[in-house]
Write a structure and sequence with these properties.
Layout (H helix, E strand, L loop, with lengths): L19 H8 L4 H32 L6 H49 L3 H6 L2 H43 L1 H7 L3 H38 L1 H6 L3 H54 L4 H42 L21 E9 L5 E10 L4 E6 L5 H6 L9 E6 L2 E2 L5 H7 E4 L10 H5 L9 H10 L3 H6 L17 H14 L4 E5 L7 H15 L3 E5 L3 H4 L4 E6 L2 E6 L1 H5 L4 H24 L1
Parallel strand pairs: 3-8, 3-9, 6-7, 7-8
Antiparallel strand pairs: 1-2, 1-4, 4-5, 9-10
Helix pairs in contact: 2-3, 2-5, 2-10, 3-5, 5-6, 5-7, 5-10, 7-9, 7-10, 9-10, 14-16
The chain binds thymidine-5'-triphosphate (TTP) and magnesium ion (MG).
Magnesium ion binds next to α11.
Length: 605
């Protein structure tokens, strides 16, 4: 079955908002009732706790020593047990429901981000570090998850405990109630003060974390280069420096936390002390009963301690909010519109391509292509030859609309390329990249990558034969099931290129782009591939980028490029008939071949 590519059912773009709390609220769509249930569970738990203290007061003041029978005492005992069970059960339920919400939101967020990142433009990926994306898709999502699982629910708990216990004390004794919340405004002020500071430091910390991830990720991908250049010490030093910076920023962040704790502790402790003492005096004077005093002492703890936690929660929440912003930055990044454009023919393209005065610049930079004009008739081969950096890759990258040309026009079958849907175009164009990438999957999976139908072994073999890789694959112990290591390191460069050629051929594209596809292959194998391709290229418009004249000489049109311009064009014979770069390259390569031949002769003799 062909995999159906579908967007996650929920579009998170709605959740992007300058008001972060509103955004987080929208992100909860579909889980709000569960979260509401979690809050209600909390409320019931809070009520049970308070009821326990009220029962205690009733027991001491109205039952104890008043000559009630054992039945009454047993009933009160049952009441205590029941309330404790109630509280425990609902605290548990509430935690579970909150976790369900948090995990659900995080799951959706991760899926969405992954999906979204797949759809971003080449330009975005060019300018974004992989480590940054990794960090935001993992660590920042985790901070958002904790926001729902721990912080938001804890905040709800604090508010509920506060309200319930305050009201309960209020019914017992109003002055006491007012007294017991006297420092709360100060606590809140202190929390808010730290909140702002922690936000900033946390943001700096996360940024550095992303930096560290990038360093690590690049180092691991480039491990061969590092070893080859014996730059381990330098790389270790660089990592240690980044790590040290993270440590410093982490310390500054923790400092804020550790400053907050003692200040809130002092305030809370002071508050309780005063409450207890004044309550005790009232009890001694007879203003309140002993039972009321005990109940008050119990309940006031559940006002003050959670309040003291308020600061910590608010401070941690700031992490969730900052991470929310960082995640939103990816969400708001525009996707590459794959299905935008009016042209999406039902069948295949013919492959008539006309460049008319095309110019192009990467991302608003200097132009790397100028005045490019040529025509490729359906089924013809166009060869691109030119020094490195002359713009060959850039030119062919315009065809699948990886990047948009900035001037002139390109038409495909007579219609402007910009009007074609990208997805359609890419289904018609097969490209063998200059540096092919293989996945850490089996060779067969790599070859059939991107083919949305069942493929028979015969088809796979045929493609592999054409790429002159079939016999090599069979020589591996597991044949086509051989796993390709991370980045295909178990294959040689030339073998990777040939697997990539097979992968492209299997897709049977109408337009074929071979960007230096045989650069890592020896002359003999290249000859074999060229022969097989000659057959396969028939009926397809093909762009061949190569440095060897032998590879390009049979093309119907040869373009010689230099500094982003076409300096010569024509067939092999036409170009040979005139002085210029092409003939120079030809003669040079011929001379090298000759010298090689005669040297071989000399050694053989
Ligand atoms: P390329 O088009 O990559 O040059 P090339 O393919 O002819 O070179 P080679 O034979 O080595 O493969 O580059 C042309 C210019 O464009 C060069 O100055 C680098 C620049 N460039 C970018 O700025 N961003 C890109 O993504 C690429 C591919 C090139
Ligand atoms: Mg190139």
């Amino acid at each position: 079955m062909a995999p159906v590519i579908k967007k996650p059912d929920y579009n998170l773009i709605n959740a992007v908002s300058d008001n972060r709390l509103l955004g987080l609220w929208r992100m909860m769509t579909g889980y709000r009732y569960i979260y509401l249930a979690a809050t209600i569970g909390l409320g019931i738990a809070a009520l049970s706790k308070t009821a326990t203290y009220l029962l205690l007061r009733y027991f001491i003041d109205d039952i104890l020593g008043k000559g009630y029978g054992w039945q009454t005492l047993a009933l009160i005992g049952l009441g205590f047990v029941g309330l404790a069970l109630f509280e425990g059960t609902f605290t548990f339920l509430s935690g579970r429901l909150a976790a369900q919400t948090a995990e659900g939101v995080a799951l959706r967020l991760r899926n969405y981000l992954y999906d979204h990142i797949q759809r971003l433009t080449f330009t975005y990926h060019d300018r974004t570090k992989t480590g940054e994306l990794l960090q935001r898709s993992t660590s920042d999502v985790e901070a958002v998850r904790r926001f729902y699982a721990d912080q938001a629910i804890a905040l709800g708990r604090i508010v509920l405990l506060f309200v319930v216990n305050f009201l309960a004390i209020w019914t017992l004794q109003r002055q006491l109630a007012v007294l017991s919340v006297a420092v709360v405004p100060v606590l809140v002020l202190v929390s808010v003060f730290f909140f702002g500071r922690v936000s900033k430091r946390y943001e700096a910390y996360q940024e550095q974390d992303a930096e560290l991830q990038t360093t690590l990720q690049e180092n691991l991908s480039g491990v061969r280069v590092v070893k080859a250049f014996a730059r381990q010490d330098y790389e270790i030093g660089k990592f240690e420096q980044e790590n040290w910076e993270k440590y410093q920023r982490g310390r500054r962040l923790i400092l804020m936390h550790s400053l907050y704790w003692p200040s809130s502790d002092i305030l809370a402790g002071f508050q309780m002390l005063v409450g207890f003492v004044i309550g005790a005096i009232m009890a001694i004077n007879g203003t309140i009963t002993v039972g009321t005093y005990l109940a008050y002492a119990g309940m006031v703890i559940w006002i003050i301690w959670p309040m003291r936690n308020l600061g910590r929660i608010i401070v941690q929440m700031s992490a969730g909010l900052v991470s929310y912003d960082r995640v939103c930055e990816i969400i708001t990044e525009e996707e590459e519109p794959l299905t935008e454009g009016s042209i999406k023919p039902a069948g295949h393209v013919r492959g008539e391509i006309v460049f008319d005065n095309v110019s192009f610049a990467y991302n608003g930079g200097e132009t790397v292509l100028n005045d490019i004009s040529f025509r490729c008739n359906p089924g013809e081969r166009v060869a691109l030859l030119g020094s490195t950096g002359s713009g060959k890759t850039s030119l062919v990258n315009l065809l699948p609309r990886f990047y948009e040309y900035t001037g002139g026009s390109i038409t495909l079958d007579g219609k402007e390329l910009k009007d074609y849907q990208r997805r359609y175009l890419r289904s018609q164009i097969g490209i063998v990249e200059q540096e092919p990438f293989l996945f850490s999957r089996s060779i067969r999976e790599n070859i059939t990558y991107g083919v949305l139908r069942d493929v028979s072994d015969e088809e796979v073999y045929a493609a592999a034969r054409a790429a002159a890789i079939h016999d090599v694959i069979l020589s591996f112990p597991d044949g086509y099931n051989t796993q390709v290591g991370e980045r295909g390191v178990t294959l040689s460069g030339g073998q990777k290129q040939r697997v990539a050629i097979a992968r492209t051929l299997l897709r049977d594209p109408r337009i074929l782009i071979l960007d230096d596809a045989t650069s890592s292959v020896d002359t003999e194998t290249e000859g074999a591939i060229r022969q097989a391709l000659t057959h396969l290229m028939q009926g397809r418009s093909t762009f061949i980028i190569a440095h060897r004249i032998q590879t390009v000489m049979y093309a119907e049109l040869i373009l010689v490029m230099d500094h982003g311009r076409i300096i010569q064009s024509g067939t092999h014979d036409e170009l040979m008939a005139q002085p210029g770069a092409y003939r120079r390259i030809y003669e040079m390569q011929a001379r090298v071949e000759d010298e090689l031949q005669s040297e071989l002769q000399a050694t053989a003799d």
